């Protein structure tokens, strides 16, 4: 039997922790934030904006579901860095699981990957991939650029910088970088004072609950939202701002934990196919297993894989999976890049065992470490003289 209000009653059977030696309960030793945390905040605030920082984590001391802060306070962590720690802190099996090749995590139908550092940059670079794919289709698959394209892109003008757009949804959150902010609509604090882009924003379904009692109303909500998506795509296409992609979370996270039906996502994919817009499903917060499947969109029974799936958080790194056609497009752009092939000195010196970089059209760039010593400089100069003598 449960206890009355104001009393605490322990469960009859307490399950054992999955991580050995995990703390058995929170232990607060100081005020929160404590003196060490307050000092760290003061030091941090002297060099950067620290308004969003509330504590500092002692990662070596944290274990399992318990986080230890800089003051030694042990706290049960039920937020896990905005859902970023799949097995809590210092789980002994985590590295073994990630290094096991039998643990395939790629979404079905997506065999190519591009890794990134975080969720925002994963989405930002996935947006670029969708633009490149759209423009390549407009060119009829041609793999060369006109001089006008090369020159105009350097001054942010068309045709090198085409006027494309992405469709996103009210309540969406896709990141805080500039392109991602144009598709983020969850909280004003994310966007206020920041210039943005005039891209289409559609309504995300807002259902009535319980679902089983409002089937007809929720189906109508799906229909209204999907009609608006297609209307907006045609509107922006006719305005000269073609919609190159549709960006959507399988569950809106920052915007209110909003869900949509499998039928909604299935028809959304079909709209993308009819209009030529790629479908990007942002799994930064939902990927990695929290919905019962490795990828939340697997619940939707899509006829085929999304064009792009971005990830971060529980995956402990960022990036995006793409269909093979996107990989071919990226390869085409890489082959057209300027640098290594136009700089024979750089190419030759790498062959001799010195790793350097290129910049501009034919310049070798040096950025040595702070521990670079005269002996290292002599080695480099010796190799450079060998290269220059052969040119």
Structure explained in plain terms:
The protein has 391 residues and is an alpha/beta fold. The chain folds into three domains: 53-82, no CATH class; 112-335, Aspartate Aminotransferase, domain 2, CATH 3.40.640.10; 344-389, no CATH class. Helices cover 33% and strands 12% of the residues. It contains twelve helices and 13 strands. Strands 3-11-10-9-6-4-5 form a seven-stranded mixed sheet, sandwiched between helices. Strands 1-2 form a two-stranded antiparallel sheet. A two-stranded antiparallel ribbon has the order 7-8. The longest helix is centred in the middle third of the chain and has 24 residues, at 215-238. The chain is globular. It starts with 34 loop residues before the first helix and ends with a helix. Residues 1-13 and 336-341 have low confidence and may be disordered.
Keywords:
391 residues; alpha/beta; Aspartate Aminotransferase, domain 2; 3 domains; seven-stranded mixed beta sheet; 13 strands; disordered N terminus
Question: What does the secondary structure layout of this molecule look like, with pairings?
Answer:
Elements: H1 35-45, E1 66-68, E2 74-76, H2 80-83, H3 94-99, E3 112-116, H4 119-138, H5 147-153, E4 165-169, H6 178-181, H7 188-191, E5 201-202, H8 215-238, E6 243-248, E7 251-252, E8 258-259, H9 262-275, E9 278-282, E10 308-311, E11 318-322, H10 324-335, H11 344-351, E12 357-359, E13 363-365, H12 374-389
Parallel strand pairs: 4-5, 4-6, 6-9, 9-10
Antiparallel strand pairs: 1-2, 3-11, 7-8, 10-11, 12-13
Helix pairs in contact: 4-10, 8-9
